[in-house]
Amino acid sequence: MNMPSTDVVTCDPWTYQGMKPLSWIDRPEPTRYVTRPIIGLRMSEAFRATVIASCHSVWYEYPFLWIAARFEFDGASGPAIDGVANMLAALGHDALYLAKQTGATGYSYRMADGWYRRTCIAQGAGAARAWMHWTALRSCGWLWRLKG
Q1: Hey, is 27 helix, strand or coil?
Q2: Could you give the CA distance from residue 65 to residue 55 in angstroms, rounded to a whole number?
Q3: Coil, strand or helix: which one is 14?
Q4: Sign of CA dihedral 78, 80, 83, 85
Q5: Which of 14, 92, 102, 142 is the most buried (most CB within 10 A)?
Q6: Is residue 3 part of a domain?
């Protein structure tokens, strides 16, 4: 695994990014990913009121959700196949869920799930595939929240 850098990258996940995000992420195990640089994901106006406190690996300064270098996430959970079309969505979604579990306010888990779906579509997943992922998140997301 490569050592994390002090690099900072920003992107608009609702604009197609291609393979670029995969270069920011290491995969030390089949079901575990680790970010290399600090990643800033541009968020929509709906997240403007978001407040994240005391979460060292995720912070928010409108319009960016910042994710620390060495942030660990599990990719798209369940039967979904990880790839170009859902990697940014999975990263942002896991960061939003973690922040929510540590007391973030201004958004709901439902909003985080919707953000995932819209990001998958923007990254090329297709509406049907993104809808299937969203349906799984809405029906099984509570299991992830039990881990915290």
Answers
A1: strand
A2: 12
A3: coil
A4: negative
A5: 92
A6: no
pLDDT reported for residue 3: 45
Range of the domain at 71: 8-146
**Confidence category of residue 146, pLDDT binned at 50, 70, 90:** low
Q: pLDDT tens digits, residue range 46-61? A: 999 999 987 889 999 9
Confidence at residue 127, expressed as pLDDT on a 0 to 100 scale: 93
Is residue 139 classed as helix, strand or coil in its secondary structure? helix
Q: Is the pLDDT of residue 111 over 50?
A: yes
| 81's tokens | 């196949």
Domain count for the chain? 1
Contact criterion met (CB below 8 Å) for 76 and 86: yes
